Amino acid sequence: MNATAPHGPRGRRLPPHGAVVVTGASSGLGRECALELESRGFQVLAGVRREEDGEKLLTEARYGRLRHALIDITDEASVRASAELVADRYGGLRGLVNNAGICVPGPLECIDGDQLRHQLDVNLVGHLSMIRAHLPLLRRSNGRIVNVTSGLGKTAVPFLGAYSVAQFAKEALSDALRRELAPSGVRVSIVAPGAILTPIWSKVSQAGERALGDAPPAVADLYRSALQAFLEGNAQLAMASRTTPEDFARTVLRALTDVRPRARYWAGADARRAALLARLLPDPLLDRRFRGITALVGAPGPVGRTPVP
Ligand SMILES: NC(=O)c1ccc[n+]([C@@H]2O[C@H](COP(=O)([O-])OP(=O)(O)OC[C@H]3O[C@@H](n4cnc5c(N)ncnc54)[C@H](OP(=O)(O)O)[C@@H]3O)[C@@H](O)[C@H]2O)c1
User: Fold this and answer.
1) Dihedral angle sign, alpha carbons of residues 24, 28, 29, 34
2) CA–CA separation, 24 and 31 (whole Å)
3) 3-state SS of the chain: helix, strand, coil percent to 5?
4) Coiled-coil intervals in this record (predicted)?
5) Rounded to whole angstroms, how far apart are CA atoms 90 and 302?
6) Residue 89 Cα, ligand 1 centroid: separation in angstroms?
7) Fewest CB within 10 angstroms: 2, 11, 168, 269, which?
8) Alpha-carbon distance 220 to 131, whole Å?
9) Each residue of 288-299: pLDDT tens digit?
10) Alpha-carbon gap, residue 32 to 198, rounded angstroms
11) Inter-residue long-range contacts of 176-184, CB under 8 Å, 24+ positions, other chains counted
12) How far apart are CA 227 and CA 308, in angstroms?
């Protein structure tokens, strides 16, 4: 890991070679990231949950350096199998990109224990399972862990409470790991994307409708207008976002190749702004920024667009 390669004015980069595992590569940011890392020179093991998603990805990979594996990060046997495959095929691991994720939306009053556990299983516990299983391989290669969080890793947004809980926790997991693993040479970075148009947004809208459907009618009625306006506003924000999956993939590449990787990278000005506001603004001012979202709680019908910071 001593060789460095010049790469732009901001600093020097390590050459992009060795093996990298990307979880959640069937769609959206993970898919783009797997293809970008392959194109730059890494051997990529793309984690998908369905064989057909892996085969589709293979047809899109152009350099013969991408393979896929069935990895469900909430299934310990599948996580162990991934580590065994990496050991057999590559011998070591330069990078583990913990990208897989879901978003369980809805007012917290509508989120039951099973839904919260599922959110945390995928966005937190599953990542720690992947990290634990792959750490011996990462140590062998002075490898890097890249944990994908979100602009909501520092700001808890109404109606995305369960997701925010998971993202805050993943930030804490990353900070603790970075400090614990520093002596072993394994570096840990967070990549926090802002809003980027991917399939996650339509999944969020559908899941939000389901959350209302599962709640007791009186509770659902209380939140219906506000939640629907919120989900609609969010979808519009994602569609209007100027940050692309390619921006995200290039940010992950930086985290994997910067000679001195940062603790945190942002992909999107909105994610950076959310973190900054969370640090600078006192709680009453932050609360005020979110009042628009909850203004319709108790209102009879959905109206207009609700701004999200
Ligand atoms: N897009 C954004 O605006 C945005 C903003 C902030 C943060 N993020 C974060 O970025 C990451 C990627 O999101 P995305 O926008 O690309 O969403 P996406 O298109 O919905 O992709 C999510 C990926 O995670 C996979 N996944 C879900 N549960 C899994 C499990 N148990 N085991 C393994 N893989 C699993 C999905 O696989 P299946 O296809 O098999 O379900 C899919 O490949 C997520 O962690 C998300 O929280 C996204």
Assistant:
1) positive
2) 7
3) 55, 15, 30
4) none
5) 53
6) 26
7) 2
8) 38
9) 999 999 999 987
10) 10
11) 177/131, 177/145, 178/263, 181/135, 181/145, 184/139
12) 13
Pocket probe for ligand 1: among 21, 23, 29, the residue whose CB has the most ligand atoms within 8 Å is 29
Interior CA angle at 126 toward 121 and 129, to 5°? 135
- Mutate which of 23, 198, 252 for ligand 1 pocket (most atoms within 8 A of beta carbon): 198
Structure tokens at 67: 């393979």
- Residue 307's pLDDT band (boundaries 50, 70, 90)? very low
Band of pLDDT at residue 2, cut at 50, 70 and 90: very low
Fold of 5-197+243-282: Rossmann fold (3.40.50)
Read off the pLDDT of residues 121-135 as tens digits, 9 standing for 90 and up.
999 999 999 999 999
How much is the pLDDT for 299?
A: 78
pLDDT digits (tens, 9 = 90+) for 183-228: 999 999 999 999 999 999 999 999 999 999 999 999 999 999 999 9
**Per-domain boundaries in the chain:** 5-197+243-282
